[in-house]
Amino acid sequence: MRLLLVEDDDHVAAALSAVLARHGFQVVHARSGEEALQALLPDPDGVVPPFGVVLLDLGLPDQDGFEVCGKIRKRTGTPVIMVTARADVRSRIHGLNLGADDYVVKPYDTGELLARIHAVSRRHVFEESEGAAAEEVLTLGSVQIELPTRRVTVGGDAVQLTRKEFDLLALLAQRPGVVFRREQIISEVWRTSWEGTGRTLEVHVASLRAKLAMPALIETVRGVGYRLVAPAG
User: Which of 122, 220, 137 has the alpha carbon at shortest distance from 179?
Assistant: First the structure.
């Protein structure tokens, strides 16, 4: 996922960018409100750069982050998470009323920030695809995942999966290339916490690789989690 980080402090931006990169994000750094708005402008062909999320600091050198958020909302529906030291309730309410999807106060726990990024991105993807028939079937090379019927085929041949195997595959397949943290997968597929469930996840990943006869389809990102690598063709 491409992510727009709007932060005027280069040291903070560098540290956060490194963490985000380790979790599979491609980070574009803007140091001012104007740079952020320029990054969201369409190119000469009218194509708007795709960003999954905007992380927006409020203390920018050229204009207030609240003002920038309002301008972003007029240009795009990309989720915006305000990341700021302003902890007062009035600022939180004002930011959310301007159209921010979430509000995170510095200093923050990195794991929580990552969870919030995934949460707002997930809601955005769901809202865009809700009711769209094209989103009911996910196609990844020779793999087809029919969400309404919970049917999976490889090269046209049906593959029998358990309920949890299907849920795991469908979760990863909805955002190919994005790294899902182990804790996030456990929370969404098993509806429980990470403790004591890690081995269950590993077993299900191994089973999926074997049943689909595609060991490279689900990639292990050491120390983080898993991501789905869309097969060629």
Answer: 220
